[in-house]
Amino acid sequence: MSLVSKLDKKFYPLVGDRWDDAIFRDRLLQHLKPDMIVLDLGAGAGIIPEMNFRGKVKKMYGLDPDERVMSNQFLDAAACSTAEEMSFEDEMFDVIICQNVMEHIENPLVMLTQVKRVLNRTVTIILPLLQEPPRMGFISGIINCVEETKKTLSKRFTISTQNHSSKK
Questions:
Q1: Which residue, 58, 83, 99, 120, has most beta carbons within 10 Å?
Q2: Residue 168 and residue 99: Cα distance in Å, rounded?
């Protein structure tokens, strides 16, 4: 058990282990509609049940450099690749989900350029901005990158960043 998990159990005994995933799911469900085509960047192996939106949208795609994404049961289609090298068609997606991914991206500007390319004109990007404390320095660093990108993308897209730094 990680130190963060131990502290969570001590100071927040009534909050479940994946409280942040539950908050993120609730936030996403406010935006998702049955006719949307969605990409989950960093979809992984499909081990977080809160990230299962299959059947709630028209088509659920996933992308991850981990080969286990190809057997992710939460997806209708999967691709094994980095976010910086995704090969989807231009303006293919209505929503891109990026949960617990930004701190793993080597080149966030390249990734965000790819995101801009594959999103259609009526989209919402939802980026949670909290991870375990050791990663906060990196997250803070990319917030500036995200803010600059928001200025560029906001002419075409609605961008929502979710900062769930306090538990409810």
A1: 83
A2: 19
